[in-house]
Write a structure and sequence with these properties.
The strands form five sheets. Strands 1, 2, 3, 4, 5, 6 and 17 form a seven-stranded mixed β-sheet that branches. Strands 8-15-9-10-11 form a five-stranded parallel β-sheet. A five-stranded antiparallel β-sheet has the order 18-19-22-21-20, sandwiched between helices. The chain has 465 residues and is an alpha/beta fold. It has helices at residues 13-24, 40-45, 47-65, 81-105, 164-167, 184-195, 215-227, 281-284, 320-334, 363-369, 384-389, 417-429, 434-438, 449-458, and strands at residues 2-9, 29-33, 109-112, 114-119, 122-126, 132-142, 146-148, 161-162, 176-180, 199-203, 231-233, 237-244, 247-254, 257-263, 265-268, 272-274, 307-309, 348-350, 355-360, 373-379, 395-401, 407-414. The structure holds flavin-adenine dinucleotide.
């Protein structure tokens, strides 16, 4: 039986990044992956393919609707969904192949097959052809991630009623699409198909979309997505989804009113659940919690000595960058280092257009906690770069401690918010104040100047509005 210092089960961003860090630290490392390619949800059916489809659909929408004001005259722009999906597959292939290359570089063994614990310190790997290999693991890291959830009575067939995975693979633009759930996955994939021509109806049980975000982002994003043609049915519960031939009927209830929406496709995006199926947890005496998550202490230790868990399977914010940070920290802890994941500063991003990005606390949270805070905001309609590129929908908002000026939260709606938010992430890691940002020279003309202006606005000193 081959013996490893570290065996990681699952090659998503948590697992593969954790394995690379473990190898860098000198551990003999292996990763067990049951799927044909490395990279997990994120690279295969999550972050990366969704961003590829968002970019393609954005270009189509831009070519159709936004070129004429620039004096660019095109004929009718058409979409070739097959080609778009093929391009997405190539992007995925490049990145998953890249992980395989990184494994070679770092001498990490890829154990191909389904991993399960035989007993503490021993992991069986069952390959697709049924052969089983058992390896020894001084330390085992469970990074088995998550899979899409559904709602009672709704069966996902990945044809008419799809999860996010199916919604990345439609062979043509559905005439109509019902998206169940107004979270980040539903809104991103709803945007993709809406831009390509679908009539998209988002059904959300709560009274708002992206409820975890700052209220200004909720109202700002709702307004722009509605202007883009997405229809929202809030405070509305899905009662049933019936497939009839190649279409579906979605019965929804809002207050006393029940109605049926017919749609070509239905996307169920109501969240994700942890995945620990056939992992042999019973063989090592490890029991998931009531929701299926694995419980760990602050050092990612489960209750079983030598067994750790990271990423989506331990819950918290189910995001790739959070999983990666945990992978790195877990490997460093095994090497006796003292890393810390700063859960206060996990950026949350939606790749709609404009994008939404947020870090730290929301205004609702500060009010609820009774913190005395100040607010600074700068709207993109007064930003030179935003006007020159025709992207004036959005703002930068900063929340600071009223006594110390320390930044407590930052919330951005802007075309490149996903890139801009990291100025705040870095600043807040160093306990920056609004004054620190306001005193920092920002290049002109950039949308990032709105960050400086928002910081100035905390002290009533905005220059361009
Ligand atoms: P996963 O990526 O889920 O990987 C787990 C891996 O473990 C899988 O490869 C699985 O096959 C393997 N595995 C499971 N059990 C076993 C076993 N017993 N034996 C062997 N292998 C096993 N996050 C972001 O931060 N930004 C985004 O823009 C973003 N967009 C997303 C878009 C979509 C459509 C989806 C679905 C998700 C998105 N996410 C995004 C979330 C992100 O994908 C996850 O948070 C992230 O992948 C979690 O990483 P992980 O390593 O914990 O697990």
């Amino acid at each position: 039986m081959e013996q490893f210092d570290v065996v990681v089960i699952g090659s998503g961003p948590g697992g593969y990044i954790g394995a690379i860090r473990a190898a860098q630290l000198g551990f003999k490392t292996a990763v067990v992956e049951k799927d044909a390619t490395l990279g997990g949800t994120c690279l295969n059916v999550g972050c990366i393919p969704s961003k590829a489809m968002l970019e393609s659909s954005h270009l189509f929408h831009k070519a159709n609707q936004e070129l004429a004001p620039h004096g660019i005259i095109t004929g009718r722009v058409q979409v070739d969904v097959k080609k778009m999906v093929e391009r997405k597959a190539k992007v995925v292939q490049q990145l998953t192949g890249g992980v395989a290359g990184l494994f070679k570089k770092h001498k990490i063994t890829w154990l191909k097959g389904h991993g399960s614990f035989k007993k503490p310190g021993e992991i069986a790997v069952r390959a697709a052809d049924g052969t089983e290999t058992v390896v020894g693991a001084k330390h085992a890291i469970i990074a088995t991630g998550s899979v899409p959830s559904s709602i009672p009575g709704v069966t996902i067939d990945e044809k008419v009623v799809v999860s996010s995975t199916g919604a990345l693979e439609f062979d043509k633009v559905p005439g109509s699409l019902v998206v169940i759930g107004g979270g980040y996955i539903g809104l991103e994939l709803g945007s993709v198909w809406s831009r390509l021509g679908s009539h998209v109806t988002v059904v959300e049980f709560q009274d708002k979309i992206i409820p975890m975000m700052d209220e200004s982002l909720i109202s700002g994003l709702s307004r722009v997505l509605q202007a883009q043609g997405l229809e929202f049915k809030l405070k509305t519960a899905v009662q049933a989804v019936k497939v009839k031939g190649d279409r579906a009927e979605v019965t929804v209830k809002s207050g006393d009113k029940t109605e049926t929406i017919e749609a070509d496709r239905v996307l169920v995006s109501v969240g994700r659940k942890p995945f620990t199926e056939k992992l042999g947890l019973e063989n090592i005496g490890l029991k998931p919690d009531a929701k299926g998550f694995l419980t760990v202490d602050q050092n990612f230790r489960t209750s079983v000595p030598g067994v750790y868990a990271i990423g989506d399977v331990i819950g918290g914010l189910m995001l790739a960058h959070k999983a990666e940070e945990e992978g790195v920290a877990c490997a460093e802890l095994l090497a006796g280092e003292k890393p810390k994941v700063n859960y206060r500063l996990v950026p949350g991003i939606l790749y709609t257009h404009p994008e939404v990005a947020s870090v730290g606390q929301t205004e609702q949270e500060l009010r609820k906690a009774g913190v005395s805070y100040k607010k600074g905001q700068f709207n993109l309609r007064a930003n030179g770069r935003a006007i020159s590129i025709g992207e004036t929908d959005g703002f930068v908002k900063i929340l600071t401690n009223a006594d110390t000026d320390e930044i407590l939260g930052a919330h951005i709606l802007a075309p490149n918010a996903s890139e801009m938010i990291h100025e705040f992430c870095l600043g807040m890691e160093f306990n920056a104040t609004a004054e620190d940002i306001a005193l920092t020279m920002h290049g002109h003309p950039t949308i990032s100047e709105s960050i400086k202006e928002a910081a100035l606005s905390v002290h009533g000193r905005t220059l361009n509005a």
